[in-house]
From TrEMBL:
CDD domains given in the database record: HDc
Coiled-coil residues: none
Chief location bin: membrane
Biased composition (Basic and acidic residues): 204-226
Name of the featured protein: HD domain-containing protein
Pfam family, one: HD
Chain residue ranges for the region called Disordered: 196-226
UniProt signal peptide: none
Domain HD/PDEase span(s) in chain numbering: 27-141
Any one GO MF annotation of this record: nucleotide binding
Lineage of origin: Bacteria, Pseudomonadati, Bacteroidota, Cytophagia, Cytophagales
Amino acid sequence: MMTTDISSVVRTQEFAEPLLQSLPDHMEYHNITHTREVVEAAELLGKQCNLNPVERENVMIAAWLHDIGYVKSCQNHEAIGAEMAKPFLDEIAIGQERVQAVIDCIMATKMPQNPHSRTAEVLCDADLFHLSSDRFFESSERLRQEMKNTVGKISKRKWMQGSIALMEKHHYFTEYGKEVLTPLKEKNLKKARRKLAELEEEENGKADKSGDKPTLEEETKKTKKPERGIETMFRMTSQNHFQLSAMADNKANIMISVNTIIVSLIISILIRKLEEWPQLVIPTVMLTASCLAATIFAILATRPNVSGGRFSKEDIHQKQANLLFFGNFHKMDLVDYEWGMKEMMNDSDFLYSSMTRDIYYLGKVLGKKYRLLRFSYTIFMFGFAASVVAFGIAAYYFPVK
């Protein structure tokens, strides 16, 4: 193995820094500051990925040289930078194999990144290290200003859309990048989405205040917003109703289980002792009746009620059938049900009316469930308390001998 010489990295730094410092002021992102950040990230990633000393030195050299092509052109700067680097790399005499490795690293940073070696993967991840950094938005804004100066004005909203698209498609190549940097990038992605929503809301607010006549596209968007809101309302209301129904069923199951256990104990243990303890007959009857009544009301709360299961074409034409509830179509043929559903989907008023009726009748069922449950819990509460008092009185005034 060829021995490494740290002076190669130092000499590369001395070669690259003057070139990068000569870049014009409008290069607000691809400048000496960005390169130093990439070098720092490459050093960290090289250690974390357990690169050997030669590989780590190759990455550090490539990191210092990967953006020197901007001195001549912003277009295809990777290839230009590689050509500029070759004479220098030959001069520091690191060997042709390592020269090629450094060149491959530089070329791998061209978007979309395409590394073919461990060292190239490290440099690619280091070049886009800022996606996972807490300085992401600051770096992104500097890059936007640079693009504005070199290409043309880009609104913050469009830029944020592009940044989000890049982050969604991008993936880190190294294990450290996948395990450590990716979760940090996801956090920045969530923040970017929130920022985009704020920018869109701000732009919409400015458009409303301007008093300009909205375009057809803007009008279409405005008409869609209420529909999305209505659909969200229906979805949330239905979910809430189903959750409340599940809670009611759970409460009823608890009441049924508790009371059946109590009745079972009374039948299996207490009734056989009543001949010996006649003073306990009235408390036992009270407790048994209370538990039985509470159980009946709890069962009634969960007792299913299925309707006829059929609808007619006349019901569809008059928009009276609710096709969203299985009880109204479970006896229908598939062909008739499909026809009815298509008629409903083609008529938004019919669709929303069906959804409204579905929620209404869900509410009616819930009202009945909770009313029966209230009877069940009330009977159990007062009946159980009265029975305990009766047992206490019987034990006190008619003690068992």
